[in-house]
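Memo to structure team: turn this sequence into structure tokens by end of day. - J.P.
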Amino acid sequence: MMNKHGTILAFVATVSTGLLGQTAHAEEDKVYSPFVVGDNASQVFWGDTHLHTSYSADAGMVGNTLGPEVAYRFALGHEITTSSGQRARLIRPLDFLVISDHAENLGLSPLIANSDPELLKTKYGKKLHDLVKAGKGHDAFLLWIKEGMSKNIDLINNPVMGKSVWASSVDYAEKYNDPGRFTAFIGFEWTSINTAQVPSNLHRVVIFKDDGDKTKQVMPYSAFNSYDPEDLWTYMEGYEKKTGGNVLAIAHNGNLSNGIMFATERLNGEPIDKAYAERRMQWEPIYEVTQIKGDGEAHPLISPNDEFADYGTWDLADIAGLHPKKPEMLPYEYARTALQIGLQQEDKLGVNPFKVGFIGSTDAHTSLVSTREDNYWGKTPRGEAAADRYKHKILGTVEELSTYESDTISSGLAAVWARENTRADLYDAMANKETYATTGTRITVRFFGGWDYQIDDVYQAQMADIGYQKGVPMGGDLAKPTAANKAPVFMVAAMKDPNAANLDRVQIVKGWVDSNGERQERIYDVAVSDGRKIGADGRCKTPVGDTVNIDEATYSNSIGDSELRAVWTDPDFNSALSAVYYVRVLEIPTPTWQAHDQKFYGMKMPDGIPMKHQERAYTSPIWYGE
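Reply from structure team:
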């Protein structure tokens, strides 16, 4: 191939430096700057793929007065005034944001605020409007849920209003999208609750790769159209055929689905099949493994040998707080077991329906992406900073099955490895699962799998380049071994958030299906701080220590390490059995937002409220298939 100067374009070989990537060209086409060109992910970008503004009915009707513009400004690092009238700002700006307002009656709240004439022509529109204007916004919200959402009935049903609000949402994303500096994705949330009359959380965030010229050609798909995710996939397929664009979905909050998120039956009761598995993985490559409404990586009852499994656990009931959780539901709600179930299904169907990468996000309904414990602005405006906010109910109908603001966790963040901060690059990285989740801090993690990594590779300046050359990154599939009886080798590097706590340890979590078809899991500590030792069983029994002063809501980085690296070979590998591996990184103990509230307001939190925890990161997995 010839360029405009008549020189032959050279074959591009990928090289990288440290945790970054770069490319070297042939001699005649060399570029001094190693970061001008390249194919590999070179930077980690931080964002939120799940944020609600006043355009969401369940945010605006209960007090959120901040629209998309304020949400973007806050994400960009500007000081804003919250819905409760307080000043707020991030410690560092985000790199990208998906405003994912609910498709169901999108923009209802601003229309109420403006007493929109079209809205007032409808029976329920006027009812909701009058309640909100009378200061009974929560009553309006409950009416909307009871008469509309819980029955999948569109109370407003006015496409004229919906189209104008969607256009406004798209226009804001276009205004704030700044390629190379900040990415504003166009998206929405499909909010399925009613599944065969049993409230379950099957929500998906839908993210478009495209600009407004394509996304304005469709309307967001809502649960009023269908509560079945298979119908959502049909909508997504139709969008791509109509516009030539690209779209993906992120399933989230499986811990409130009462065993349905990763079920092996479809909503119509039929077993999932190969076609289902292929469609699900085509449209839903990544999964939201942590957010404000609880952490979804693991559960202590199904991972009893994991002392770190009980983190931010919500396991009382379904999303409506009506139906108690049953133990047999749990494996189909949590990411770790879902990965193992996916391997079982792959053995049966030939395709893995749950081959998902991991991402974290907030699901905040405040317009504010706030994941630091000392800067947490709650789930809803009722949960914004206040001495008594921990008492406010978040979800629930039956009292003993209800959850409160005190149960929320200040989580999470989406980390994406990509070359550039653009819609196209970040989207492609998500589609390829080169992503990971954190519970709120910005831990940097690289994870590679292959067959030939050497101990010194992880310490090389070209560590990432070696990772790509000899294997695959997080989200990838291991090729077959080059020799019999060879075990896979994994390379991992983790670095602390410069504005947060030191690291305790790096773990590799392995899941597999044994020769009897049973699910298995095991955790290996592969790097630990402070010179502690890892035993022959692959575990470090010595805790990192604890410097937390709960009364002062402080901690000290006098323990832990700022960086941990390891090359680890699976000592129990059986090439005949499929397996999946991901990394979990743990920080040293730090105070929770509840401890910060107690200190700031000079009050005493009730017993049983967590006052310290260990923040963490979860990488997308790497798979091996026989």
